[in-house]
Design goal:
With about 250 residues, the protein is an alpha/beta fold. About 45% of the residues lie in helices and about 15% in strands. It contains 9 helices and 8 strands. Strands 1-2-3-4-5-6-7-8 form an 8-stranded parallel beta sheet. Helix 6 (about 160-165) links the parallel strand 6 (about 150) and strand 7 (about 170-175). It is globular.
Length: about 250
């Protein structure tokens, strides 16, 4: 009874066969799929899809490369208005891979702090993007007093992850772990009680440039079990408990 804690199942690439994708996920033992958003249109679509497919759990957020302050306030208003229907704020965070200038990064930080404060105000988990900015994201989360946090597809070093671990944050592992030495090393050093699983569908699948989907969550579970030399059942039990602790599913 696993939960895919980070997907883009509202993406257009799933419009022609979303129902079939969900059937395959259900058959793979997945009980819930968190659909994150990158902008207001995504948030609205996620809410509509969740009414059509109850397995989908809608989230709303502004992707870190959106630096429009008016869009931020629109998103904050949307999240507040739909608090009872949303399961998380996300994805939000920092992206220093795309955003290079210090001026733009300062705006990105201000926006992220806004969502950290909103997460505390509404008691909603943060589903966090931190590409090439892991240490900075963790520092901001801790300074901002964030309590309920999922670090999605964390690409930093274990030294950057440790303060987040001590703060009680969770790390979600995508199927791309089978081709990522960084993810393998991270899982090797992180304890089982902080791990979640995700697919980030349609990307971060076990094979590059092949559309990923929630049914591939089993790849993440199997990889964690292999790396930690644990029975798959023990990994599933821990991941389910961790997901319940963060999301209540």
């Amino acid at each position: 009874m696993l939960t895919d804690t980070h997907t883009h199942l509202g993406a257009d690439v799933f419009d022609t066969d979303r129902g079939e994708v969900i059937v395959r996920a259900t058959r793979a033992g997945i009980q819930a799929i968190v659909a994150v958003g990158e902008d207001l249109a995504d948030g609205e679509k996620n809410l509509a899809l969740a009414r059509e497919f109850p397995i989908l759990k809608p989230a709303a957020g502004l992707y870190p490369t959106h630096l429009d302050l008016a869009a931020v306030e629109e998103m904050v208003t949307f999240i507040c208005a739909n608090r009872s229907a949303l399961v998380a704020i996300g994805e939000v965070g920092l992206d220093f891979w795309v955003v290079k200038s210090e001026e733009a990064r300062a705006v990105q930080r201000d926006i992220f702090f806004r969502f950290i404060a909103l997460s505390k105000e509404l008691d909603l988990p943060l589903n966090v993007h931190s590409r090439s900015a892991g240490r900075h994201v963790v520092d901001m989360l801790i300074r901002g007093g964030a309590r309920r946090v999922q670090m999605h597809a964390f690409d930093g070093k274990i030294t950057a992850a440790r303060p987040a671990l001590e703060a009680g944050y969770f790390f979600s592992i995508p199927p791309s772990i089978v081709r990522s030495r960084q993810k393998q090393k991270l899982v090797r050093h992180l304890p089982l009680n902080c791990l979640l699983v995700e697919t980030d569908s349609p990307v971060l699948g076990p094979e590059p440039r092949v559309r990923n989907e929630p049914a591939n969550l089993a790849v993440s579970v199997r990889a964690i079990a292999d790396i930690k030399n644990l029975p798959i059942e023990q990994v599933v039990e821990a991941v389910v408990a961790n997901t319940r602790a963060l999301y209540g599913f």
